[in-house]
Amino acid sequence: MPQNLRNLKGTRDLNIKEKLIQNSIVRAFTEEFEIYGYNPLETPIMEFQDILASKYGGGAEILKEMYTFQDNGKRELALRYDLTVPFSRYVGMNPDLILPFKRYEFGKVFRDGPIKIGRYREFFQLDADMVGSESLIFDAECIAIVLGAAEKLGFDIYVELNSRKLLFGILQEIGVTSEDLASKIILSIDKLKKIGMKGVQDELVDRGIGITTCEQIFKNLNIKGSNQQKIEFLEKNLTNPLALEGLSEVKTILFYCKDMKIAGKVKFRPELARGLEIYTGPVFEAFFKKSTITSSIAGGGRYDKIIGKFIDRDKIYPAVGISIGVDVILTEIMQSPEKYPIISKKETSVEVLLIPVKIPGESLIPIITKLRKGGINCDFSLDRNIRDSLGLASSLNIPICLILGKQELDEKMVTLKNMIDGTQSQVPTSSLLNSVQEILNHL
Question: Strand 413-418 vs strand 424-428: parallel, antiparallel, or unpaired?
């Protein structure tokens, strides 16, 4: 009986087209990271369970989604939930790093959570983090990075910004002094965009929060208007020092964003908290402006207390980072290819297909070697006639075909067919590389 071949629920294969698109996404972001001075780092997908579990601030909700297991030595291990804690562990193991230290990392993470469009249990994350400076310039840089990479890829996105200090301060101002209760309230508040005011209020009531307290919370969170109007409203209505400190952080980041020419794409949203309690100050999330995908495509913030747990519990190690949802972005491109024609049309890495006509394939080796050494992605089409070879190139969106027969070889010429506009010309082999590069440069 044939074996029942299938994928594990929450996992998937990436076919060639999907992987090529993913590579384009990752390349755009890593180029942007390096522009801002971040360097690559790689950490293991497995960690000791106690390190992951004790350093996350999400409590039982995080632990329920963590994949845990024992190895043959009976050690309690877990698959990493994100890339932030492994980065923190790395910094803790390398105390001589020159600060501020910037790194980016691309890799798989694992969460045994709900599955929906664009969300899987095994998925890729692409993170950039900085440790060693309290300057909010680095927070603004994280926002600039995601906006810069999105522009390269042709995405229309916006970024939401807030500070968790503002949220805690607002709760303190209305008499919520228990940090544990405040954290639970904030987890509910963070869902305001998804489930609405009524849904959040129902959750808060279930947590024992009275209707009057709920109304006081919403008064300072569910506010409309421009960034400046929201700031002015909160400055007028708040007196709590922590809340005003958080508001000052938001104002400072918006000021830096203005200097970076990106302020128009940054929206101050006072109820934004991000789920993980590791965040200690500013937080931000990026979203598509027009898409069926409502999940954030990137998110991050300040987590000044985590790294100190790995090094010196009495010392603060200021840090900020951004995490890119590569799979969410990939899903958007695959669902709406017409919006991203340049990226979505790519079916292969091959840029030039060489087609021999009634000559041995090995006759093309000198030409294809010259092109490859010139940085051109090339391949042969052997055992096919011209019609089938051109059909193959068309189906894979290969932009250039080179056709060579005995006459072309004798005359040291090549028939170059531009598959984009359909034009065809005779090109000397001596200038072939330049002719190919000129076409590719205009794609």
Answer: antiparallel
Residues whose CB is less than 8 angstroms from the CB of residue 32 and which lie 6 or more positions away in sequence, other chains included: 145, 148, 149, 152
Q: Which two tokens stand for residue 372?
A: 């490859």
Q: What is the mean pLDDT of the chain?
A: 91
* Per-residue pLDDT tens digits for 216-257: 888 888 889 999 999 999 999 999 999 999 999 999 999 999
CB 179 within 8 A of CB 186: no
Report yes or no on whether pTM surpasses 0.85. yes
Distance from C-alpha of 9 to C-alpha of 3, rounded to nearest angstrom: 17
Pairing of strands 413-418, 400-404: antiparallel
Task: Please write the tens of the pLDDT for every residue from 277-334.
Answer: 789 999 999 999 988 888 899 999 999 988 887 776 677 889 999 999 998 899 899 9
User: Given this model, what pLDDT does residue 218 score?
Assistant: 86
Same-domain check for residues 322 and 410 = no
Query: Taken in order 87, 91, 97, 100, is the CA torsion positive or negative?
Result: positive
Both tokens of 262, joined, read 């990106």
- Does position 58 have pLDDT exceeding 60, yes or no? no
Copy the structure tokens of residue 268.
């101050």
Quick one: 271 and 373 in the same domain?
Answer: no
Is the CB of residue 378 less than 8 Å from the CB of residue 350? yes
Report if residue 10 sits inside a domain: no
Q: Are residues 183 and 248 in the same domain?
A: yes
Q: What average pLDDT does the segment 407-433 reach?
A: 94
The whole domain housing 356 covers 352-442
Q: Which residue's entry shows tokens 């297991």?
A: 69
**pLDDT tens profile 59-69:** 556 778 999 99
The pLDDT value given to residue 305: 86
Residue 313: per-residue pLDDT = 67
Decide: residue 285, CB within 10 A, 0-12 exposed, 13-18 middle, 19+ buried: buried
- Same domain membership, residue 269 and residue 151: yes
Enter the tokens of residue 133: 């400076």
- Tell me the C-alpha distance between 315 and 310, whole Å: 10
Tell me the three state secondary structure of residue 56. coil
Question: Burial of 148 by CB count in 10 Å (0-12 exposed, 13-18 middle, 19+ buried)?
Answer: buried
Q: How many CB atoms lie within 10 A of CB 226?
A: 10
Amino acid at 309: K
What residue type is assigned to position 136 of the chain? L
